[in-house]
Amino acid sequence: MTDTRSAQADALIGELQRQGAGRLTIFLGAAPGVGKTYTMLSRGRELQRRGLDVVVGLVETHGRAETAALVEGLEVLPRKRIDYPTAQGTARTLEELDLDALLARKPRLALVDELAHRNVPGSRHERRWQDVIELLDAGIDVFTTINIQHLESLNDVVHRITGVRVSETVPDAVFDRLRDIVLVDLPPRELIERLQQGKVYVPEQAAHALQAFFSPSNLTALRELAMQTAADRVDSDLREAQTARGLAGVTLRRGVMVAIDGRGQSEYLVRVARRIAERRDAPWTVVTVQGADAANEAQQLELDRAFALARRLGGDALVLHGNSIVDALLDQAARSGASTIVLGRTRERPVARMFNRTLTQQLIQRGAHYELTIVSTPEARARARRSWRRPGGYLTRSDTALAVTSAALATALAWVAERWIGLDDLSLIFIVAVVLVASRTRMAAAVIAAVLCFLAYNFFFIDPRYTLRISASQGVITVVLFLIAALVAGRLASKLRMQVVALRATNAQTTELQTLGRQLATAADLGQVLRAGRDALRRALDAEVVLEAGDQRLHAELLGEKDRAAADWAVKQRQASGRYTDTLAGSDWWFLPLELGERETGVVGLRFPAQLHRLGIEQRRLAEAMAEDIAQAVVRTRLVADLENSRISNETERLRSALLSSVSHDLRSPLASIIGSASSLDHYADAMSAQDRHSLLETIRIEGERLDRYIQNLLDMTRLGHGGLTLNRDWIGVDELIGSAVSRLQRYEPGAHFEVSIEPGLRPIWVHPALVEQALFNVLENAAKFSPPGAAITVRAQSVEDGQLRIDVRDRGPGIPEDERKRIFDMFYSVERGDRGRQGTGLGLAICQGMIGAHGGSVEALPGSDGRGTTIRITLPRMEPH
User: Fold this and answer.
1) Could you tell me whether strands 284-290 and 765-767 are parallel, antiparallel, or unpaired per DSSP bridges?
2) Closest by CA position to 756, among listed 768, 741, 773
3) How far are the Cα atoms of 235, 240, 268, 553 from residue 8, in angstroms, in the given order?
4) Contacts of residue 47, Cβ cutoff 8 Å, sequence gap at least 6
5) In this predicted structure, what is the pLDDT of residue 199?
């Protein structure tokens, strides 16, 4: 009920939205030349005569005089001229739809030809259908034309039919906006005649078209596609309109559904349904309804053969569950959009006429909107007559024995209750017996139990006793009411049992599939997927399992030579093989293909106990569903692996490019200074003063130390990335740690100014002194690079909650945008932006984060306290030696 109301609400909302926008009418044709533009113009002129404001936005006449004549008398909007540069460097003027002028004019109806046209580069939209969408959104109704080969979803189909790949396509979503569709049809022979007469193309083009696209077979196939598309759209519109009004959907496509029961005519019915569907060119489905009683071996064998035949003939096969065959059939027909139900003739019986209608009668009474085709054969009628009497038919020997035994026990219990307990109303005992039989068997046995209990109750306990004659009128009423109550109670109990059994079967399958789905969802690679699938198949089907996908195989050593041949055939042909099939049935294994893509197939093999001669329909469906889930999980893991490999490859390439860029620039700068200074000393040392020589040597030293820091940073980053960093902890005072880092940096950056604030009483910390000092040095160096000349860098150390040490380093630089504060700790991020500035490899903060993280601490970037600059906060936990 909720789904129905939701669908109705969605349909109403969609209808209201379409009413608020412009209405789209598409004139659909199978090929150029069928008369779409001519029909559109004729319809536009007719509406203009009725007083509607009609404007021709753009119409292509292609030199056809009869089409151009229809344009006369209509208001034609001037086209927009666009200069398009050619390969020779000159500009060529082309004409396109003037969308802005048409929106400003805002007619009631706009005629826009060739919906799939690609606009000239420089236009607002790339495709004309986007112009049409904008017109519709502005409340303007649009008439437009399109050939069926330009529909996006049919692009591959058209390519297979004609061998031509159409590049100008229209998304199917555009068809969701249309209000009406007009199919403009022309028989292929007449279209070819028009082509030969030069009414479609010039003679040279016409001759080429007749040899390629415009062949009779191509035109016939395209014509069929156009008709199917129009029919689908009409059917969809009808469904939406009826759903919006709360009415039951009625399909216009003549789908065929055939119901079989495995009682002697299933394959015959399948063939009849195939012929009916073929004549109507309609989809068809074979269904069987399973209630509380499972089919016997003979019925199961017949159903298996019928389902296999249906699949070979191109139909679908489904197993339905339900206690009411009529309800199950009508529900499935409504869901699948079938208009014709084919079934075998059901034989009427006296008991059925008294208490129930036959299946045919119920369908005729309740299926008023469906066409019923009743099929029968003499052989089927003969088998149906024998099935009532033979074991395994409608009534089995065990069911009859249970009915007789229950009636006898009820009689004995009633005699004991009357003689020793003094119970007057003995009918309840017999009714309980009937309900017991109905809850454990089928309705026929319950009827027999009710009749036997009725006779026993009358013979032994109704006066005059030991005779079936009833002396008092009250006694007649009593036994009649008893019989009615027994039959009704038996009927209800039988229906309840059928429902319970059907729900159990459905719930068992659903539970197994859900369990498999959960296990597959957590599987991270192909091996885990195959192991999860193997365990689920073993548990659900109680069978040995072989799984093969890609280069991985599970228990393939269990397969013999015949089994291997059957498995290879299933992989190659993508069809089931082995036991329980007609292909290589000598194998002990049943093989199902795993669809892993267009070119690759895996296989799942199942070996059931030898005494299991036939597989039930439910077992087959469960195995096929589980195999499909396993195949999808394999495809998913491969996609995830491919995406991860692609991501790693891209990341590796990015880091490689960043490293090369860093090395080529940042390492060459100090090398150039060192080489230049050394060369000057080598050539001009005698002519230089002592101060100049000292200055050059100082440059060599400073640049050498800078080069050494760059190389050390690269080595540290390598150690961090490979887990090779060893912590040699020792006690060090916070003031000593900060003082050492500041003093070291001032040797390289003499112009840097620092304001250091250390909370009094801070205890020493248990860390690797050299690593933490290097991390702090990197942060200070980064701050010095971005601080304006003369601006002080603030360093503040304090103890926070749980004894943690917090060191804040704040600069007065330009700051870091909020969305980039975490990225500055990425390797080589500074190559693009961040902590590099004019010097540096972009590794300083990344190394800092790695070193502090090795101590269990954290590093984060925060905005400056007064809105200026950046604060880098280092937090170290309080550790004690142990």
Assistant:
1) unpaired
2) 741
3) 17, 8, 40, 50
4) 54, 109
5) 61
Q: Please report the pLDDT score of residue 409 as a whole number.
A: 87
Structure tokens at 269: 């019915």
pLDDT tens digit sequence for 709-723: 667 656 655 555 444
Contact 497, 440 (CB under 8 A): yes
Single out the residue of 360, 81, 67, 43 nearest to residue 199, CA to CA. 67
Rounded Cα distance between 596 and 618, Å, is 24
Q: CA-CA distance, 23 to 52, in Å (whole number)?
A: 14
Residue 169: CB atoms within 10 A of its CB come to: 19
Lowest mean pLDDT among 168-177, 202-211, 648-657: 202-211
Say if residue 586 is exposed, middle or buried (CB neighbours under 10 Å; 0-12, 13-18, 19+).
exposed
Whole-angstrom distance, CA of residue 525 vs CA of residue 741: 48
Tokens found for residue 520: 């597959």
Q: Among 377-391, 453-467, 529-543, name the most confident range.
A: 529-543
Tokens standing for 344?
A: 């075998």
Q: Each residue of 746-770: pLDDT tens digit?
A: 877 778 888 999 998 888 998 888 7
Cβ atoms of residues 131 and 99 within 8 Å: yes
Q: What is the DSSP letter of 127?
A: B
pTM over 0.85: no
| DSSP per-residue letters across 613-645 | -S--HHHHHHHHHHHHHHHHHHHHHHHHHHHHH
Q: Report the distance separating Cα 147 and Cα 160, nearest Å.
A: 17
CB atoms within 10 A of CB 251: 16
Q: Tell me how crowded residue 789 is: count the other CB atoms within 10 A of its CB.
A: 7
The 3-class SS string of 130-176 reads HHHHHHHHCCCEEEEEEEHHHEHHHHHHHHHHHCCCCCCCECHHHHH
Q: CA-based angle 629:631:635, to the nearest 5?
A: 115
Distance separating alpha carbons of residues 539 and 630, to the nearest angstrom:
15
Rounded alpha-carbon distances, angstroms, from residue 146 to 42, 182, 198, 590: 16, 11, 21, 50
Alpha helices in 245-324 (DSSP H): 266-280, 297-312
| Alpha carbon distance 544, 527 (integer Å) | 18
Strand stretches in 747-869, DSSP E? 753-758, 765-767, 792-799, 805-810, 858-863
Report, in this order, helix, strand and coil percent for the chain, each rounded to 5.
Answer: 55, 15, 30
Q: To 5 degrees, how large is the angle CA 122–CA 128–CA 134?
A: 95
Distance CA 517, CA 532 (A): 9
Tell me the C-alpha distance between 575 and 312, whole Å.
Answer: 11
Taking alpha carbons only, the member of 225, 140, 229, 133 closest to residue 181 is 229
Q: Which residues pair with 82 in a beta bridge?
A: 94
Query: What SS3 string covers 605-621?
Result: EEECCCCCCCCCHHHHH
Hey, what amino acid is at 805? L
Residue 868: what are its φ and ψ, rounded to 5°? -115, 145
Q: Which residues contact 666 (CB under 8 A, 6 or more apart)?
A: 710, 836, 839, 840, 841
CA 38 – CA 25 distance, rounded (Å):
14
| CA-based end-to-end distance of the chain | 68
Rounded to the nearest 5 degrees, what angle is found at the Cα of 71, between the Cα atoms of 67 and 76?
Answer: 140
State the DSSP string of 503-535: HHHHHHHHHHHHHHHHHHHH--SHHHHHHHHHH
Closest CA relative to residue 11, chosen from 304, 279, 239, 226 = 239
Q: Are 472 and 464 contacting, i.e. CB atoms less than 8 angstroms apart? A: no
Residues in the chain: 882
Amino acid type, 788:
P
pLDDT band with cut points at 50, 70 and 90 for residue 432:
confident
**The two three-digit tokens of residue 801, written as one number:** 């909650």
